[in-house]
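Pipeline run #58 for the internal structure catalog. This entry was flagged by the ingest filter as a single-chain record with no existing model, so it goes straight to prediction. Upstream metadata was stripped on purpose; only the residue string is passed forward. Reviewer on rotation: M.T. Logging verbosity set to normal.
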Amino acid sequence: MNLDTGISKFNMSKFNHQIKKISDTGKNTEKFSGVDKNLREATHEFESLFIHNLLKTMRAAIPKSEFFNGGSGEEIFTDLLDQEISKVVSKRGIGIADVLYQRLTKS
């Protein structure tokens, strides 16, 4: 599954590092208080990535007008705007992070 659709390499490596740290601890999550925090952060980061991809796909569905085409500068700006919107929305939450957290703590 390719998640690299405009998401910065740094954010993906940070997300992958958090997932690796969580998976390395095994199933004894109740013994490690830091693991719970890391799992929460990873699920919120996943929700943020999901929202970013959703916004990017929604923007791609809108036909571009030649009259208002800002070129590559506009594309960079809208991508950065979508990233920031996804961070703000994921802090409030749409429910994906909570469901993932519950499912991952049950196993």
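catalog note: The chain is about 75% helix and 0% strand.
catalog note: Residues 34-58+71-107 form one domain.
status: ready for reviewer M.T.
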